[in-house]
Amino acid sequence: MLFKKTAGIGVFGGSGFYSFLKGTKSIEVDTPYGPPSDKIVIGEVHGRPVAFMPRHGRNHDLPPHMINYRANIYAMKQLGVKYIFGPCASGSLQPGIKPGDLVICDQFVDRTWGRKDTFYDGPKTVHISMAEPYCPVLRKTVIESAAELKIDVHPEGTVVVIQGPRFSTAAESRWFSGQGWEVVNMTQYPENYLAREMEICYVNISIITDYDAGLEGRPDIKPVTLEEVVRVFKKNNEKIRELLFRAIEKIPGKRSCICSRALKDAIIS
Questions:
Q1: Per-residue confidence at 2, pLDDT binned at 50, 70, 90?
Q2: CB-based contacts of 195: which residues, under 8 Å, 6+ apart?
Q3: Which residues pair with 160 in a beta bridge?
Q4: Looking at domain 9-268, which of 3.40.30.10, 3.30.710.10, 3.40.50.1580, 3.10.20.310 is its CATH number?
């Protein structure tokens, strides 16, 4: 089903974001890749239409490896989305990044397998550069917005994306930490890359809920509990809302970033 272009800005995240939007309506979107995670909710932020989708589904019934990432991104593209914010719960791999912190990642390492991670399965062949995988303009907007709101963020970091749904072993986690990577998560890939294939600007905001297994056991770090993860995540909801609202207000009208021309010279003819 085709829709009029109704929103230039999209957000993937938890269902708690629904309550922050004004004048919402739900749209069911069909895609050539199957159904997306849920209906898309269209609302307004500072008078700008915003499309929101819970990446795990409204009832959080889609584990990370079962999310239809292609359908989710394609649905946003159908609605005219050019900018996507991708906040996600993540674990810390470094002692200096604490539960409750926010990391605006600038790199990722893919450790997933078997996920449908391209729109180009042939006969058209596309090779897109991912040297700079997150939109530099959108990252700058989020970082500046955080500074204005006096929200402390780590302005860069590498997220290693694991397959899930299991968490890392302590050995795996120590390996990731030893590489100098900062964040571990299960959903950032291929969500970020598929957005680039659709020439959509994408920014990650990693919400640190716990220390990963490789850091536990140190005398200065306490093992995480589920109760603590939930507490930290809920405490950050308002902070994320304020950050998203400020950043959405500051999004530029025209794009000149690498995302907007990602397909240029990437298609083999």
A1: very low
A2: 73, 84, 201, 202, 259
A3: 109, 184
A4: 3.40.50.1580
CA distance 269 to 265: 10
Give the global pTM: 0.92
How far CA 242 is from CA of 145, 148, 185, in Å, comes to 9, 11, 23
- Residue pointed to by tokens 């997933």: 112
Task: List the one residue out of 206, 210, 207 whose CA is nearest residue 108.
Answer: 206
Do the Cβ atoms of 115 and 190 come closer than 8 Å? yes
CA distances from 16 to 143, 150, 263 (A): 23, 23, 34
DSSP state letter for 96 = T
Is pLDDT at 125 greater than 60 in this prediction? yes
What residues act catalytically? 210, 212
Q: pLDDT tens-digit profile of 132-171?
A: 999 999 999 999 999 999 999 999 999 999 999 999 998 9
| 105 exposure class (CB count in 10 Å sphere: 0-12, 13-18, 19+) | buried
CA-closest candidate to residue 84, choices 239, 182, 188: 188
**Cα distances (Å, whole numbers) of residue 88 to 23, 102, 133:** 25, 10, 16
Closest CA to 99 of 219, 8, 226: 226
Amino acid in position 124: K
Residue 231 has pLDDT above 50, yes or no: yes
Asked if 81 and 9 touch (Cβ cutoff 8 Å), the reply is yes
First to last CA, the chain: 30
